Predict the structure.
Amino acid sequence: MALGSIRGDWEGSIFVDGTFRASSSGETLTVLEKATGEPLGTVGMATTDDLETAMALSKKVQAEWAAQPYNVRADLLRKVADLIAERADDIAELIVRETGSIRGKAQYEVGGAIDELEAGAALAARPSGEILQSHDPNRLSLGERVPVGVVATITPWNFPLILAMRVIGPAIGLGNSIVLKPSPETPISGGLLVADLFAEAGAPAGLVQVMTGDIAFSEALVAHPDVNMIHFTGSSAVGAKIAATAGGQLKRVSLELGGNNALVVFDDFDVDKASMIGAWSSFHYQGQTCITAGRHIVHENIFDEYVEKLAARAAAISVGDPKTDQVGLGPMINERQCSRGKSFLEDSVAAGAKVVAGGEVDGLFFKPSVVTGLTPDMPLWTQEIFAPVAPVVSFSTEEQALEMVNSTNYGLVNSVLTGDEGRGLRFARKVRSGMVHVNDATPLDEANAPFGGIGASGLGGRAGGEANLEEFTERRWVTVQQGEVEFPY
């Protein structure tokens, strides 16, 4: 299967040693178009034997790649970015069909992937070290950055292309090699498409290798002794298991995990604008992002008006097939995810919550929903929902709002809306999370900004800009003695 200018010789394959090939078992996985359930293509399912072949190559080529001049590394990333730009429409259509997103989200993802590659290319030219002071005038003391080595990245299904390139861009630019294990829900746009682009751009065989696999394969990848770093984006529960394995091997790990993010609305902010920001924060891409607003904390003076306006916006959002219809939301990624969100909603309603808008689910199509009457123990308040549901509660004082925001183990992103920017900044600095936005939505992401969370939302460094230097390199101290040395024995 090919889409326009996207080549299709990856059908039924994994990507190892610069070639598309069948897995050693010959097993394949059928990838479905999310809105229709129709087959979109097939990919190979890798085995541990395939992993051993790939790892030996990754280790060898990484040393060779790190020795390449910076401009060679940068040029490769720019070539891949150019290929994406040339095929933007076809790639966006693939993302729509494989992820169930609307075209606007897919187009954003295409542009974001280009940004990540260009940022990675810029990193390649960054200074790789510094001259340090030494108490010995004859000693040249240097601090340098060297690549981590082989980076294994396990990526999710919600933003498959951009989240692959977020790791690959800086890692490749800084001299590492990549083993990419995409989600089985999106192994084409998040996996074999990536392989195809790097192959066409002339990447050395083995520099970027792509293998879809089951849980056992993922566990073997994480535990493999030749993997120097694990980068995982996904659920906090899986992230904890990866951290335990990596910790036992004293292996570097970077985890970008879930969030139970809050949008705080003070009564001095325009309510209509607040409801617009709230709707986008909770409903974009069916609520299936780690930076979705899962809790709306609204001042009691404007609570009723905010709920009314947010409910009106939810009711106006159309839901359907994003490939054939002009809709605001597409289908949920799969039945399991849809049932999970529906269960959270039903359990909270059974405990006393009230659905003000939405609440209906038809197959994988989940209408955007607004819920009030929540208590702190309800699943819609305590869990990461990952569905288009906006729970709303009220507060009376700033101190109460801050306590509500921080009453979770998650710490990814929060937003505060207020007419007083000074108060917004003061409030933001008291919030316990890796990212805070004043007078903006929770879903923000820019390639040059440090993206990541704390607590149950993340472990390790940050993605973006200068933060990637720390993420994908190790520091090394090198000295050169230019004179005679004397020691007591």
